[in-house]
Write a structure and sequence with these properties.
There is one protein chain. The protein is mainly alpha-helical. Helices cover about 60% and strands about 0% of the residues. The relative contact order is 0.18. The model has no long low-confidence stretch (mean pLDDT about 85).
Length: about 80
């Protein structure tokens, strides 16, 4: 359940306009900050949080890159 909360938070954060650069790319530092503020308290430690966040961010990053490579017209659009 905690993992699904983090995933939904991360997916929501990558679509926030303030978390995108001027060219429409995701600013992962801002996404990390949003996720940390909302979900960190669910984990026993920073290490536990970042282990879960890093695994999930890698998965979502791969999805985003595949979409951007296949459909460059969607760069900066909600996915």
């Amino acid at each position: 359940m905690i993992h699904s909360i983090l995933e939904s938070t991360l997916r929501r954060a990558i679509n926030h306009e303030e978390n995108l650069t001027k060219d429409g790319r995701i600013n992962w530092s801002f996404v990390d900050a949003d996720c940390y503020m909302e979900c960190r308290a669910l984990y026993k430690s920073d290490a536990d949080y970042y282990e879960a966040y890093d695994d999930l961010a890698d998965k979502v990053f791969d999805e985003v890159v595949r979409v951007e490579e296949s459909y460059p017209q969607f760069t900066g659009k909600e996915i």
